[in-house]
Design a protein that fits this description.
Blueprint: H1 2-17, H2 20-51, H3 62-86, H4 91-96, H5 98-103, H6 109-141, H7 146-171, H8 177-197, H9 203-212, H10 218-222, H11 228-255
Length: 256
């Protein structure tokens, strides 16, 4: 466990020693704030219309009309920010030649991969922590339910874990950061839009594509529902991606 934490600490130092961490956190905070302001404006207009008698007060719910759509829009932010976190994890090690030192150290492949994943996950958690300020504003001046907020953040953390683990695998296949970043973005986008194709397929394939869609599993979390099938999907996705990364690192060790 100490070896894993040491790798994670090394990764975090690398993120904050370069502009990566500040760009990721700053860019995500700006986009989240933009989504928040627009949804808040929409919710305010809906509240005024309900107060005037159009639809009645019961039709206005801050969780359903503001917080849930806000969490779903965060998946758009992840498409652009998480490739910046993962593209350098292995590609930069290979380019600079430090991968040989890492692979000859008394560490197992699983410890290396887990440590790098944990370092990226901590940075991603810090990115999410910045957004708590906006949600806190709603609790200070409104009365939202806290359970959908908690489950929504859990869903975002699991979704981010899937993207990070997949990005680690892509980065382990190349020594070029730009290539790793672009391929990671393309793969992320594929899993983000795969359910769009489902409408043009048969019932069986439609169910398969909807299940593979990484955003479909976030909907229930944003509504405050924790379903076992969503947990199994996210955990299995992370475990399988990390397994592929371990295999890729092991093959690099043998080639070296």
């Amino acid at each position: 466990m100490n070896n894993v934490l040491a790798i994670a600490h090394k990764e975090l130092k690398g993120y904050f020693a370069s502009p990566v961490a500040y760009v990721v956190i700053g860019f995500s905070a700006i986009l989240f704030g933009w989504f928040f302001i627009n949804l808040l404006y929409f919710f305010d207009r809906a509240s005024m219309q309900a107060g005037a008698g159009f639809g009645g007060p019961q039709s206005v719910n801050v969780n359903e009309m503001l917080i849930s759509p806000l969490f779903l829009n965060v998946s758009v932010i992840l498409l652009f920010t998480l490739p910046l976190i993962t593209m350098r994890t292995y590609a930069e090690e290979k380019r600079s030649g430090t991968i040989e030192l890492l692979l000859t150290s008394p560490l197992t492949d699983l410890q290396i991969v887990t440590g790098k994943f944990l370092g990226g996950l901590v940075l991603y958690a810090a990115m999410l922590a910045v957004t708590v300020v906006h949600i806190g504003f709603l609790f200070a001046f409104g009365n939202p339910e806290w359970r959908p907020v908690a489950t929504g953040y859990l869903g975002l953390l699991l979704m981010g874990g899937c993207f990070l683990s997949l990005g680690l695998f892509v980065s382990s296949l190349t020594r070029n950061q730009i290539v790793a970043g672009m391929v990671t973005f393309a793969v992320f986008l594929l899993f983000w839009v795969i359910n769009w194709i489902a409408t043009f397929t048969g019932p069986t394939m439609q169910n398969v594509l909807n299940y593979l869609s990484i955003t479909e599993h976030l909907n229930d979390f944003a509504r405050g529902v924790i379903d076992t099938k969503h947990l199994v999907y996210y955990v299995s996705f992370i475990a399988f991606s990390l397994f592929l990364t371990v295999r890729a690192v092991d093959s690099e060790r043998w080639r070296g």
